[in-house]
């Protein structure tokens, strides 16, 4: 319900925002000397709390790299999947680097840069599961984090499936581990980590949906900023920097032919 | 990447609980002051004042806190006025508390027997003096249990402030759960901290009730 309400509130505010004053385009950020970037704190391994409860992750590293490339100070703001679009649309932050996948629906409200990284998403289950694809799913229940790319993908591929949606990946994983759901749709990296921690309940891939790219979010009406972020991404893809960072945090480098927008 | 839930995490939750307590106290102080005015406007023998108070209470009670939080946090920044998460949360919860407390206290004021109004009038006290010296002191005692009951609700409702990025106890718990994938350890600790806060409030309420006995 919470996400529903926030979507409505967000849509209402975005329509109001059309009349809002000019937003911080590239020159405004340079003039201010600070770039305000929204990053997650509850989406491992993109943004999460480490052992000393500092916010770390791939998205935090990319945000630092952006600030460095712009030559300005970095102001990090924690966003959630429910409020990140509102944050952008109301000019509270200049960019989001928040594990966000691009969809045509989201692109009506904000702009997306070329993808800076990607994660592999799919359906996972117990190692002895007899399932080999979504086609012979039957009435097994699937747990997934609501509104994520894997949720959208799963809903498209198996519209009649018995899908249970949870607030985040950790809650969906808990539902799976406690037997509330029989299968788990999540990111490859999370399934691997869970298996490493608890080898007796290792998760095996049943079907890998796709390689899901993540994009920097830019408020609408900032053509210079969007162009700059695209150039930044292009440059750091070509010099291998983003691939190295992806390997460090997500366990595997980016593929040779990585898509671009 | 996934790590163990440890002692540092308990400390992190305790530090986050400060914000839960501070937000509750701020909302209680500001909301309480407003509520007193609204409750009195609600009962004074002057119809337009009653209508104003009833309208305010209905408006606040009839809209979800989540919607109010979004309006204060995001709504104003549409007009170029950036409100911080703390300011938006305090404003929202103060308004929320003021409407509910006003109704609770109105009930308390009205439950003081009518004869108390009449006899204090017979002593030559004017309206405000009757309220100040006769009615409110008796209403306070009646109002302690429902007020503390509401306060306990308020403590738990502050978790809604997490939607605008305010890191209080619940949000801190959610963040830790996503770092440790250990929901039992995380949420049992969170629940224990909420229990300590709420139980202390209830105990304080009982002691306060024992001490205030103007009507006896």
Question: What is the topology?
Answer:
The complex is a heterodimer of chains A (about 260) and B (about 220).
Chain A: H1 2-17, H2 26-32, E1 34-40, E2 48-49, E3 55-56, H3 58-70, E4 73-79, H4 84-89, E5 95-100, E6 110-126, E7 141-145, H5 149-157, E8 162-166, H6 169-177, E9 183-187, H7 188-197, E10 203-219, H8 223-238, H9 241-250
Parallel strand pairs in A: 1-4, 1-5, 7-8, 7-9
Antiparallel strand pairs in A: 2-3, 5-10, 6-9, 6-10
Chain B: H1 7-43, H2 47-61, H3 65-75, H4 85-110, H5 114-122, H6 127-157, H7 169-180, H8 183-211
Features:
heterodimer; A: 261 residues; alpha/beta; D-Maltodextrin-Binding Protein, domain 2; 2 domains; two-stranded antiparallel ribbon; 9 helices; 28% strand; elongated; B: 216 residues; mainly alpha; MetI-like fold; 8 helices; 79% helix
Short description:
The complex is a heterodimer of chains A (261) and B (216). Chain A has 261 residues and is of the alpha/beta class.
Word description of this protein:
The complex is a heterodimer of chains A (261) and B (216). Chain A has 261 residues and is α/β, with parallel strands linked by helices. Chain A has two domains: 23-118 and 214-250, 3-Layer(aba) Sandwich (D-Maltodextrin-Binding Protein, domain 2), CATH 3.40.190.10; 119-211, 3-Layer(aba) Sandwich (D-Maltodextrin-Binding Protein, domain 2), CATH 3.40.190. Chain A is built from nine helices and ten strands. In chain A, a hairpin with a 5-residue loop joins strand 2 and strand 3. The longest helix of chain A has 16 residues, at 2-17. With 216 residues, chain B is mainly α. Chain B has one domain (7-211): Orthogonal Bundle (MetI-like fold), CATH 1.10.3720.10. Chain B is built from eight helices and no strands. In chain B, helix 1 crosses helix 4 and helix 5 (114-122) packs antiparallel against helix 6 (127-157). The relative contact order of chain B is 0.16. The chains are: A alpha/beta (261), B mainly alpha (216). Chain A binds chain B through residues 2, 5-6, 9-10, 13, 16-17, 20-21, 41-45, 48-53, 77-80, 82-83, 86-87, 90-92, 167-171, 173-174, 189, 193-194, 196-197, 249, and chain B through 1-3, 6, 8-9, 12, 64, 66-67, 70-71, 74-75, 77-80, 82, 162-165, 167, 174-181, 183.
């Amino acid at each position: 319900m919470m996400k529903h309400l926030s979507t409505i509130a967000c849509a209402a505010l975005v329509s109001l925002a059309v009349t809002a004053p000019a937003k911080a385009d590239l020159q405004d950020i340079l003039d201010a000397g600070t770039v305000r970037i929204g990053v997650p704190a509850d989406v491992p391994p993109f943004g999460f709390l480490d052992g000393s409860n500092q916010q770390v992750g791939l998205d935090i590293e990319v945000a630092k790299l952006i600030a460095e490339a712009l030559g300005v100070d970095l102001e990090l703001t924690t966003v959630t999947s429910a409020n990140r679009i509102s944050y952008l649309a109301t000019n509270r932050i200049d960019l989001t680097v928040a594990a966000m996948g691009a969809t045509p629906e989201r692109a009506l409200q904000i702009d997306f840069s070329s993808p800076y990284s990607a994660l592999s998403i799919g359906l996972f289950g117990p190692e002895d599961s007899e399932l080999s694809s979504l086609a012979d799913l039957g009435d097994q229940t699937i747990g997934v984090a609501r509104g994520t790319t894997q949720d959208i993908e799963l809903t498209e591929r198996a519209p009649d499936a018995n899908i249970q949606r949870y607030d985040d990946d950790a809650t969906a994983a808990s539902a799976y581990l406690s037997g509330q759901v029989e299968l788990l749709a999540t990111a490859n990296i999370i399934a691997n980590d869970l298996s490493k921690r608890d080898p007796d309940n290792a998760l095996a891939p049943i079907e890998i949906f796709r390689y899901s790219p993540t994009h920097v979010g830019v408020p609408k009406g900032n053509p210079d900023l969007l162009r700059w972020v695209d150039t930044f991404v292009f440059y750091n893809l070509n010099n291998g920097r983003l691939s190295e960072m992806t390997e460090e945090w997500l366990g595997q480098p980016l593929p040779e032919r990585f898509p671009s927008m | 990447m996934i790590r163990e839930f440890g002692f540092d995490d308990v400390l992190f939750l305790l530090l986050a609980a400060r914000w839960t307590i501070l937000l509750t106290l701020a909302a209680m102080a500001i909301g309480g002051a407003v509520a007193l005015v609204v409750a009195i406007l609600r009962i004074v023998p002057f119809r337009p004042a009653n209508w104003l108070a009833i309208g305010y209470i209905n408006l606040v009670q009839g809209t979800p806190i989540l919607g109010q939080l979004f309006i204060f946090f995001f709504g104003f920044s549409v007009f170029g006025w950036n409100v911080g998460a703390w300011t938006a949360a305090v404003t929202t919860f103060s308004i929320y508390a003021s409407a509910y407390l006003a109704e609770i206290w109105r009930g308390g004021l009205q439950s003081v027997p009518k004869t108390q109004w009449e006899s204090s009038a017979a002593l030559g006290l004017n309206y405000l003096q009757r309220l100040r010296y006769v009615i409110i002191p008796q209403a306070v005692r009646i109002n302690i249990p429902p007020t503390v009951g509401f306060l306990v609700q308020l403590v738990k409702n502050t978790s809604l402030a997490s939607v605008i990025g305010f890191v209080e106890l619940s949000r801190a718990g959610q963040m830790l759960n996503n770092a440790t994938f250990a929901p039992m350890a995380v949420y049992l600790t969170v629940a224990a901290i909420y229990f300590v806060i709420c139980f202390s409030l209830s105990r304080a309420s009982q002691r306060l009730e024992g001490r205030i006995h103007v009507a006896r």
